[in-house]
Amino acid sequence: MSSPGHERSPASRPSSPLREATVRAVVQLRTLTVSLFGLIMMLAACGDSGPDDYDDSTREAFMAGCVEEGSDPDLVEVCECTYETAVEELPFERFRSVEDRLQQGESDIPDDVSQIILDCIREVSASRS
Fold it and tell me: Which pTM was predicted?
């Protein structure tokens, strides 16, 4: 039991691989919205309103926004899991709605999407234990 005044602040807690993966995943998943939005805008400019459902271009844009060349393999697995789970659990309209909200400057990831990300982080972490 620590005495008052000797408690550690969150910033001084030792970093764990899971915490680092969580932070990286959240930051990179936010970056993904920019990539996917760019893809949708590019398709719209070409006369296409963008994808109406999950497809190969959606997956490619998601993964390109989520990971970079040489990314940590755990992060790649978290991103793959997140996309596959979104396909199974989120209607595409919801996926686009979240993307639109993030593009408009909202910084909060909705609870249903956050839960998917956290579940995937736990799944990947458990597979490494």
Answer: 0.62
